[in-house]
Amino acid sequence: MKPSFEKGIYLLPNLMTTSALFAGFYAVIAGMNGYFEQGAIAIFVAMIFDGLDGRVARMTNSCSAFGAEYDSLADMISFGLAPALLIYQWALHDFGKLGWLIAFVYTVGAALRLARFNTQVGIADKRYFQGLPSPAAAALLAGFVWMVETNHIQTGLESFFTLFLTLAAGLMMVSNMRFNSFKELNLKGKVPFVTLLLIVLVFVVITLKPAVILFGFFFLYALSGPILTLRLLQQKRSERRSKKRKASEQNETEKKETEQPSAESDAP
């Protein structure tokens, strides 16, 4: 029998994905024309639409294989290619061949990160991401560009820090470090009234210095990966040690139990 193919696509979630793709494409065009601040903002806009498409699909019960593949391709453009080209046009072109090679390392890291994520759907632990998520890596680079351009920072070290930041982001995407996915947060349940006020306060603080605060947030999120990974490794080691102790204690008790009957049988 021939495989049956679904006719048509779901409009609303794929419209969100298309909007994210458009924002990523605009970031490339803005970077090529020297509008680096607008390009960085466009990457953050792509992040918003990328976060909405999956939630809209689940809320409207319109998840599909086509939507998943389309979302992955759009992520590659918006969070893999667009940040690399933007950061190259902004600072890395000063390093010549080294600059575009570092930008390529980032692009390959994003592609490998997305491919690994797609193959581990339903298998990996949902509490953690394996490797830095590509949207967070893109926000790290775009946030730095936005912060420097908005505040007119000129120390002479921006290009070198950009080189290090791009390489680090590309390598962290393909690493085995664990990053919190925040998927355990229950957004459907009831929360205290104070929580809503705190959320409003967070938005107010972000609007004061959006570039600085967003870059600082994603920079701290990137640093949380190595710290969380070390904590998880320590927990695993302590669990192994406790298991070994329990096994050794159990063996000692079994030896004592076997020695006692033999001693009683040898007694006159």
UniProtKB/TrEMBL annotation:
Its EC number is 2.7.8.8. The keyword Oxidoreductase does not apply. The keyword Transmembrane helix applies. GO terms for biological process: phospholipid biosynthetic process. The chain crosses the membrane at residues 9-29, 73-92, 98-116, 128-148, 160-179, 191-208, 214-233. It is found in: Endomembrane system. It comes from the Bacteria. Keywords: Lipid biosynthesis, Lipid metabolism, Membrane, Phospholipid biosynthesis, Phospholipid metabolism, Transferase, Transmembrane, Transmembrane helix. It catalyses: a CDP-1,2-diacyl-sn-glycerol + L-serine = a 1,2-diacyl-sn-glycero-3-phospho-L-serine + CMP + H(+). It is a multi-pass membrane protein. GO terms for molecular function: CDP-diacylglycerol-serine O-phosphatidyltransferase activity. Residues 247-259 have a biased composition (Basic and acidic residues). Residues 236-268 are annotated as: Disordered. GO terms for cellular component: endomembrane system; membrane. Belongs to the CDP-alcohol phosphatidyltransferase class-I family. This is CDP-diacylglycerol--serine O-phosphatidyltransferase.
